From TrEMBL:
Name used for this protein in its record: Uncharacterized protein
Record field: transmembrane: 682-706
GO terms for cellular component: plasma membrane
Amino acid composition bias (Polar residues), ranges on this chain: 768-777
Organism of derivation: Owenia fusiformis
Keyword Lipid metabolism: no
Length: 777
């Protein structure tokens, strides 16, 4: 009941608060309307509203009380005091303290007792919600340091304490303040970054409040004096980019003391700020061809000036303004302000290329017109045998592709080969539709291993007319370019990098570089442990445990040639693989004789690496139904235990093939299920207990012999054939003969039994997936 009463009171408070706000708002609107003064003089009609009318004051008071009420609803049992101060402050300056009481409900006034530990004074004040204390600490009376200011709030009538708080404030003998830096730029992507060779406005803000003070400022950039003025605002210009330190020395003569004893005190303050200066982007130029073939890279260069990082964007549009393509790239650091337009246009015509460049403090634009034409449909394809290590032989290939239906009587072309490797020379070959060259880039020539470009120009050998141009990147590497192949003979494998334990694994490494008379050695590793050293690029090993492994090889090659000294090249490869145990010990549990309309209920289990999947299919051995040989896996589980449940609605003998797979193996087993008619005559089954009694000794003896054979030899894959088809239309004599025949056939074949509970080793052959889903066959 107390909770319901409290909630009801809160609800009424909120409703009344909303009502007061609405009434005050309506009254305020009426006051604004009535306060308009109309004047028909030369100045026309003027409308004047009092700076702060009665309704505005009422709104402020109601809103303030409403906020306190809402806050108090959630904090009415824990009154608190929030304090603030304009600290740090210099001696002889004015410091202001504020204390705000958080309580609900709020009374008209409280007693705020301020305890100043700097002067050891107690200053009582009466206030409602907020109390303000202004103090001036004379340098003659108070020393520099950190002092606590305490406030205690009490009820006016009883004097009981409500809440209290304490705040430390700092008194210094120097000036306190900061400097603000501004600059008018088109772009300001990053704070504290300003443009070089442009005015930077520096403003000094001394936060100390003095009764009367005269200030003088000295400005410095990176320690060099830039000016001396009494104005707190100063303009400077930085000539170079990079990090700069702005320093301001502030001097002040301030009045200190009381009205009866005033003396002048000198103050000093030092303020500094680090800024970054960048050059504005400019001189955006397009350096490329203005007449270009269609469906070919433009490959134009754009140059500029300015400081990095930059964002370069270009937009290609048709004369009507329809945008064809837009691309932007960001360059963080670079030596030269240079960008590449590497794109292509598929349709001929006139286009407009708009370019823009932006850095942290500026932006610039440029626009050019380009024309795309449709040349003869001839192209050249260029590739190479790279990546290749330095000092190896590299072959570059070029193949000229002619359009369909074009024939050349004398197919002779001039191929001009030119790369951008330092010190490399132009090479010319004359061939038919295909041509190639071989080059060797030596490390002794200080060629850096990186990405380069081979340019190929194809000319008509008779008139020198350019038929096609193309370029192809190629990579020069510092280390050998190799590939590690890991193989294992498995009949079934689910994933490429998964291998079986306790089986031989073969490692083969291929070196793709064309070396001169190489002497190569191989160090082989398994989990960073060396497992062998060979001069041949292959090795074999066996991993006994399942798990994750790191397989690798370190390669060392020595090459010797006439034009270079003995060189040693290295290569290193590491490959992560997973090793899993193969499946084994398949176990089958269940009844193999099912009544007509009944369910087969058995379970297949196994041991081996997980995850595993299961599938099975059932085939009618009578040939009346078309056999289903598909087997589709639907799910993988961590536990190798799968139930087989199926309802049989027709008499006969059925073949059930179950298959279990994991990542590295597949095992399958086959058994037979006999479906009989439970309503047939029971005469055929009378002989069963009699014959069992007569042959008990024979069964026991046969079991002993069978047990001895099992101990000597592993269990083979079992094919079950339990019963023949039972029909309800045969006579008693026929049924007796069938029962006896079935019984003797069972006694002769150890594979057939009425209840199957055996450890079966299935075949290791790959099988197709089942057509039925797991658990419902």
């Amino acid at each position: 009941m107390l909770v319901i009463k409290t909630l009801s009171i809160r609800f009424v408070q909120i409703v009344v608060l909303h009502h007061f706000l609405f009434v005050a708002f309506c009254n305020g609107i009426e006051e604004i309307k009535n306060s308009k003064i109309h004047d028909t003089g030369q100045q026309g009609i003027k409308s004047q509203v009092e700076p702060k009318s009665h309704f505005v004051q009422e709104i402020e008071e109601i809103f303030e009380d409403a906020v306190e009420s809402v806050e108090g609803m959630f904090n009415d049992r824990n009154p608190s005091v929030h304090m603030s101060c304009s600290s740090p402050g210099s001696l002889d300056s004015t410091l202001t303290f504020h204390a705000t009481l958080k309580i609900f409900p709020i009374l008209d006034s409280y007693v705020y007792e301020w305890y100043d530990n700097a002067t050891h004074e107690v200053i009582p004040m009466k206030a409602k919600r907020t109390s303000k204390l202004t103090r001036v600490y004379s340098s003659k009376d108070v020393s520099v340091g950190v002092y606590p200011m305490e406030v205690r709030i009490k009820y006016t009538s009883s004097g009981d304490m409500i809440a209290g708080n304490s705040l430390n404030f700092t008194l210094t003998d120097t000036l306190n303040g900061n400097i603000a830096i501004s600059q008018k730029n088109d772009v300001q992507r990053k704070p504290n970054v300003y443009a070089a060779n442009k005015n930077i406005t520096i403003s000094t803000n001394v936060t100390d409040k003095f009764q009367n003070a005269n200030f003088t400022y000295i400005w410095r950039i990176n320690g060099l004096k830039e000016g001396n003025t009494t104005d707190p605002v100063f303009n400077v210009t930085c000539k170079s980019d990079g990090n700069n330190t702005i320093t301001v020395d502030a001097f002040a003569e301030v009045e200190a003391g009381s009205n009866t004893s005033i003396h002048m005190v000198k103050k000093f303050g030092n303020f500094s700020k680090n800024i970054e200066v960048s050059y504005a982007v400019n001189n955006l130029k397009y350096e490329g061809r203005f007449n270009l073939p269609i469906k070919r890279n433009i490959n134009a260069t754009v140059t500029c000036t300015g400081s990095f990082p930059m964002t370069f964007c270009y937009n290609i549009s048709d004369p009507l303004g329809f945008q064809i393509m837009r691309y932007c790239s960001v360059e963080k650091e670079s030596v030269d302000c240079q960008f590449t337009i590497d794109t292509q246009i598929d349709s001929k015509g006139h286009y407009i290329l708009d370019m823009s460049l932006t850095n942290d403090i500026s932006t610039t634009n440029n626009s050019v017109k380009i024309q795309l034409y449709d040349p003869e449909d001839v192209r050249v394809i260029v590739n190479s045998s790279t990546p290749a290590v330095l000092d190896s032989h590299i072959t570059f290939f070029a193949r000229l592709v002619l359009p369909s239906g074009v024939s050349i009587k004398d197919p002779r072309f001039r191929y001009i080969w030119e790369d951008d490797v330092r010190g490399s020379q132009l090479q010319v070959t004359t061939d038919d539709e295909t041509s190639s060259i071989s080059r060797q880039y030596h490390s002794k020539d200080k060629i850096k291993p990186k990405r380069y470009t081979m340019h190929v120009t194809v000319q008509n050998v008779y008139d020198g007319r350019i038929i096609a141009r193309e370029q192809s990147p190629f990579n020069l590497t510092k280390t050998l370019n190799t590939k590690l192949n890991i193989t294992q003979k498995l009949k079934y494998r689910r994933f490429q990098n998964t291998f079986a334990s306790n089986k031989q694994v073969n490692f083969t490494v291929a070196v793709h570089d064309n070396l001169t008379n190489p002497d190569i050695s191989y160090w082989w590793y398994l989990n960073n442990t060396q497992i062998g050293f060979t001069k041949e690029p292959e090795i074999s090993t066996v991993v006994n445990k399942s798990g994750m492994y790191i397989l690798g090889v370190d390669i060392s090659a020595y090459i010797d040639s006439d034009d270079s000294p003995l060189l040693e090249l290295h290569g290193k490869l590491r490959h992560n693989v997973s090793v899993k145990d193969t499946l084994h010990t398949l176990q089958l549990e269940g009844v193999n004789s099912v009544p007509l309309g009944g369910y087969l209920d058995c379970r297949v289990t196994c041991k081996g690496g997980s995850p595993v999947s299961f599938c099975a299919n059932v085939t009618d051995t009578s040939g009346k139904q078309r056999p289903n040989t598909t087997c589709q896996t639907t799910m993988y589980t961590q536990k190798c235990s799968f139930p087989i449940i199926r309802k049989f609605t027709q008499l006969g003998v059925y073949k059930l093939q179950a298959t279990i797979t994991n990542d590295v193996s597949a095992r399958s087993t086959v058994f037979y299920v006999s479906v009989y008619d439970p309503n047939a005559s029971a005469i055929a089954y009378i002989a069963i207990p009699i014959l069992i009694s007569l042959l008990a000794a024979v069964v026991i003896a046969g079991g002993v012999v069978y047990h001895i054979k099992v101990q000597r030899k592993g269990v083979e894959t079992a094919d079950f054939n339990f019963h023949q088809t039972a029909t309800a239309d045969t006579g008693p004599v026929v049924r007796i003969r069938q029962s006896l025949s079935s019984l003797f056939s069972q006694s002769r074949s150890p594979k057939q039994q009425g209840y199957a509970y055996a450890s079966l080793e299935g075949s290791d052959e790959t099988v197709e997936s089942p057509s039925t889903e797991y658990g419902a066959l």
